[in-house]
Amino acid sequence: MESANNTNSSAPAAKIRVRFAPSPTGFLHIGGARTALFNWMYARAQGGTFILRIEDTDSERSKDEYLDEILRSMNWLGLNWDEFYKQSERFDIYRKYAQQLLDQGKAYQDGQAVILKMLPQQVKIFDLIRGEIQFDTETIKDQVLMKSNGTPTYSFACVIDDALMEVSHVIRGEDHISNTPKQIMIYQALGFKMPKFAHLPLIMDEQGGRMSKRAGAVAVSDYQRQGFLPQGIVNYLMLLGWSPGNNQEKVNLDAAVKKFSIKKVNKAGAAFSMDKLMWLNTQYIKELPVGKLIDLLLPFLKEKGYGDQFDRVWLEHTVKLYQPRMSTLLDFMDWADYLFEDNVKISDEDRVKHLGRDKIEGFKLLSEGLAKLSSFDHQSTEEAFRAVVTKLNIKAGDLVHPVRVALTGKTIGPGLFETMTVLGKEKTVERLKKAFE
Ligand code: GLU
């Protein structure tokens, strides 16, 4: 057990309480989501409590729309919380502790602000991921605890809340390491019991730079809009700094919880790989029951203006054709657009390459043959197609690609006869007839 590190092993195990503490000054980004996930997994692994604490003391930069979006993204990822707090509702508590430090002479006032005196000393912490870290506080200046507008600084509110909420483990991004010695001084001044710390490795972008909001790290809600599944994102995030072992990559949340251990988190930076995320997402799309996949696709179809009333049997058939290859839900929107649009878009390049005048005769015969069919399915369309190929004494491939382009505007896709079947007789015949107009 993790706690065996710092505590007497015969003492009863302390209750595990962790928190994710986002500031609603921006959307929930990949890095924040990874921090939330690791806290969540740790709490669930240990039968502990996962606290969501909104650090909204900066009233100018905190926005309700960001808070809503953070909550939506957390819910979408399935990271449910057990307790919820907003720091903006706790100002009285921070003021009370600031006054206590003033009364004890540990802090002083400069104008309206309350400032903590820093005593030069060596501060040592045992980080569960990074091991022992020493800080020299000589270089740390006296710290503002309460700003002149009466609001607490981040570190002051954070320490008070972590202590009062009995947070046992502070698990957060490595970018907060530099705040840790200052916070330790605040713990000491207030006489609070210190939590354990675990600083998660930075997430690097694909170029090896630091993945930051400014460097264009993407919000969780953007991934949702791009058609990723929460299962894919969550699985991907858990691999950023941790591994379930055996080179295993696809591991769902329940399985991860059973295996998760903070001590196994890597201290080296974790590199973000879009390819791996895409691969995982493909796996999760593949295993969805088709009905569930359709439910996820419907909002995208509606948003695109394709409506929301579809023949369910037809849609199932169609979606199944694409499901095995989809990396994101948007793939379906790109690949199957020709089924929902009135007119098929064919690029000039494809027109020149595939729709030469030598194909006119084949298209004419094929459209006539297909128009005569009473049942329009894989077998009957294929027979009609073979008849044309035989009659003109050409290779099937000479006609397959041009027909696919004429029907779908694309050079790749599922089997041609499946494509015709889902497109339907009327549109198939019409598009073949119009191909050379
Ligand atoms: N509000 C801080 C942030 O969003 C939380 C830092 C912490 O976890 O202590 O980065």
Structural summary, described in words:
This protein is α/β, with parallel strands linked by helices and 437 residues long. Among the domains are: 290-339; 348-434, Arc Repressor Mutant, subunit A. 46% of the residues lie in helices and 12% in strands. It contains 19 helices and 12 strands. The strands form 5 sheets. The protein has a 3-stranded parallel sheet with strand order 1-2-3. Strands 4-5-8 form a 3-stranded antiparallel sheet. It has a two-stranded antiparallel sheet with strand order 6-7. A hairpin with a 3-residue loop joins strand 6 and strand 7 (131-136). Helix 15 packs antiparallel against helix 16. The longest helix is centred in the N-terminal third of the chain and has 16 residues, at 30-45. The radius of gyration is 30 Å and the shape is elongated. The model is unreliable at 1-10 (pLDDT under 50). The structure holds glutamic acid. Glutamic acid binds next to loops.
Q: What would the keywords be for this entry?
A:
437 residues; alpha/beta; Arc Repressor Mutant, subunit A; three-stranded parallel beta sheet; three-stranded antiparallel beta sheet; 19 helices; 12 strands; disordered N terminus; binds glutamic acid
Give the SSE map:
Layout: E1 17-20, H1 30-45, E2 49-54, H2 64-77, E3 83-86, H3 91-103, E4 107-110, E5 113-116, E6 122-127, E7 131-136, E8 143-146, H4 154-164, E9 169-173, H5 180-190, E10 196-200, E11 203-204, H6 220-225, H7 230-238, H8 253-259, E12 270-271, H9 274-286, H10 290-303, H11 312-322, H12 329-335, H13 337-340, H14 348-354, H15 360-371, H16 378-392, H17 396-408, H18 416-423, H19 425-434
Helix pairs in contact: 1-8, 4-5, 7-9, 10-11, 10-12, 15-16, 15-19, 16-18, 17-18
